[in-house]
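Supplementary Methods. Inverse-folding protocol.

Structures were first reduced to a discrete structure-token string of length 406. This string, shown here, constituted the complete conditioning input.
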């Protein structure tokens, strides 16, 4: 019996980024294969349709989620040094001095006071670490396969091998994926019980998007959304007045802008490729009246509702609801803002005076992931800024907002 064996070795330098990768194409599966020989296995009779169903392999530095598609195999790749942001020290310099006070408050039964002090002076800065990022997707296409028999994918927990086995047109196909800690590679083995011809082609992300419209897992469809706003009398090549771009991460784009002059403005919705998108706009008063002064070291707890919002909002797709707070800072002063809520997805926005008028100068937004918001700003001059404690999509509920200084 003739057998063709291909060993494809992939390391970080592969760099095949495919943000438009979609689920495996539909293929008719027949038969009911039995369990694998290794009892200590996770096994399934259909390919993974979403990330949580894929089978993992990894060696501590490199990782892959194996989807096991028939017409398209997808390996979602990770490497342990790829994170958003840059190096930082999260240690709170006030934690050591505050610890005895926290202990005493706990001994005295003053748990709420202890919790407030911990939030203000003990917790890390920033509170949340930088998000782990995916390297990208490796896609292997087998387009001529329309039906498969006796399909099975499994993860051998003893050998740490992810396998896919099926029969198509009388040929038995086998794929095996491992992550070697010795060689520091993720290796993929393709095998068949007949001699086959294989063609390998590397396609950049933009090329893949233009060549074939694949379903996307991102809210913007098959494109990475970008918003730009310009005066109506300027063209798309001019520098925008405001811009929102997540750096290619595929997150939903959100843009806020305070008009300095009355007139017409053009909003450009761009994308890295073709795809469907949804655009919504909302309008709030330019300078809402602040609720009160936000004082460092004090945690404010309030109820955000449509009735108590600092400004009326037209629609919920953009600005949502917010309370505006006034924060006074001195030149050279650093202030960390922390916004928490169990009722809505919190966003912090800081508005200051710029050449464009009173507009947003800093923002913390997790892209709709629902995490608490934290933002550190440094005053370059004595200034009074507005701090918006904001919810997305017009959601209401209780929140707590604090400002701390080193």
């Amino acid at each position: 019996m003739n057998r063709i064996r291909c060993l494809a070795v992939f390391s970080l330098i592969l760099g095949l980024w495919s943000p438009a990768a979609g689920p495996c194409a539909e293929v008719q599966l027949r038969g009911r294969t039995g369990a694998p020989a290794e009892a200590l296995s996770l096994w399934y009779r259909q390919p993974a349709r979403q990330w949580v169903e894929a089978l993992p392999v990894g060696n501590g530095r490199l990782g892959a989620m194996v989807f096991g598609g028939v017409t398209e195999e997808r390996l979602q790749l990770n490497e342990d040094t790829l994170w958003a942001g840059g190096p930082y020290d999260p240690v709170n310099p006030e934690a050591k001095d505050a610890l005895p006070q926290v202990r005493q408050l706990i001994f005295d039964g003053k748990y709420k006071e202890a919790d407030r002090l911990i939030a203000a002076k003990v917790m890390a800065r920033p509170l949340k670490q930088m998000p782990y990022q995916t390297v990208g997707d490796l896609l292997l296409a087998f387009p001529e396969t329309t039906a498969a028999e006796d399909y099975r994918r499994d993860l051998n927990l003893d050998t740490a091998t992810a396998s896919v086995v099926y029969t198509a047109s009388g040929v038995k196909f086998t794929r095996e994926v491992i992550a070697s800690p010795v060689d520091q590679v993720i290796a993929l083995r393709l095998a068949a019980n007949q001699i086959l011809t294989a063609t390998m082609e590397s396609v950049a992300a933009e090329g893949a998007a233009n060549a074939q419209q694949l379903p996307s897992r991102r809210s913007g469809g098959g494109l990475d959304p970008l918003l730009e706003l310009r005066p109506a009398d300027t063209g798309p090549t001019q520098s925008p007045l405001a811009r929102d771009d997540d750096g290619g991460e595929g997150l939903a784009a959100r843009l806020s802008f305070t008009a300095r002059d009355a007139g017409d403005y053009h909003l450009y919705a761009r994308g890295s490729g073709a795809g469907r998108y949804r655009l919504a706009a909302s309008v709030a008063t330019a300078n809402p009246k602040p609720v009160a002064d936000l004082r460092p070291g004090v945690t404010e707890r309030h109820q955000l509702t449509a009735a108590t919002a600092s400004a009326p909002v037209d629609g919920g797709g953009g600005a949502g609801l917010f309370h505006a707070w006034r924060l006074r800072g001195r030149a050279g002063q650093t202030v960390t803002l922390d916004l928490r809520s169990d009722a809505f997805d919190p966003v912090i926005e800081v508005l200051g005076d710029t050449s464009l008028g009173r507009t947003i100068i800093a923002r913390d937004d997790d892209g709709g992931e629902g995490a608490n918001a934290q933002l550190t700003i440094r005053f370059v001059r004595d200034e009074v800024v507005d701090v918006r404690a904001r919810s997305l999509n017009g959601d209401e509920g209780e929140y707590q907002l604090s400002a701390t200084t080193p």
